[in-house]
Amino acid sequence: MVSIVVITAGLLFVMRVYSTAKEALQRSRDFFKYSLLLEDRMYDFEEKGVIEEGRDKGRFPSLREYYWEVSADSLAFEEQELSDLCSVRMDVFYRASSAQAEKSDKYSLFTYLFKKR
Prior knowledge:
About 40% of the residues lie in helices and about 50% in strands. It is built from one helix and five strands. It has a five-stranded mixed sheet with strand order 1-5-4-3-2, covered by helices on one side. The longest helix is centred in the first third of the chain and has 47 residues, at about 1-50. It is elongated. The termini are far apart. The mean pLDDT is about 80.
């Protein structure tokens, strides 16, 4: 009887470790995918070297569940512009619906680019 309890406790522990590792692996895959999407989209702006102030959004052509938004704002301190730089925030969103539930995620990237004149 005692050996069955010990074996059961050990199996429960192993199952918990396995499920945690599986979740961590999936999360790592998601981070990698989002970072590639962010890098690809941000590369378009960094290649030009400048960005217009304001907001923009769009979809990734080959991935229907993913879309992006970018926001560029002037850097200011006490209502005085500091330079020709904009703070840029790019977000990638994931939204999928299934019969069971709806899943959504958001990942962000922050950088600075020159304002377009």
